[in-house]
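Suppose you are handed a protein chain with no further information: no name, no annotation, nothing but its sequence. What can you learn? This example shows the usual starting point.
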Amino acid sequence: MSTYFPTEGEIARKWYVVDASGQTLGRLASQVAHILMGKANPKYTPFLDTGDHVIVINADKVKTTGMKSEQKKYQHYTGYPGGLRTEDFRKRFARKPELVIEDAITRMLPKTKLGRHMASKLKVYRSDKHPHEAQKPEALALA
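A reasonable first move is to predict its three-dimensional structure. Written in structure tokens, the prediction is:
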């Protein structure tokens, strides 16, 4: 017996629109990451990208729980001595809320080439307008 693996042509990718207004950041991120990985797809294979495209709108209306808005910090290292840069959640959210949601989702994906390919199917927009109407995305209500 041989195991069935879908080929690239057999994977039909759908487009989904997720409204982030009123959603909790972590719960939204985990559910979107689940869709991007393709785990909801019956043809899911761990080493293939079987996920769908996701458009997240209203990124500026997402909410956080607890003390995250006061305590959470984002850090990155520039590569130079003394180059550890830190930014508060509030500043980053005020400056670019799309980046906050994108970071939360991509950090839940695998840290491999496959994970980067999955992350390329994610589009996040601040308002409810997006340029992907030609793809006919379906509205997806997350629980």
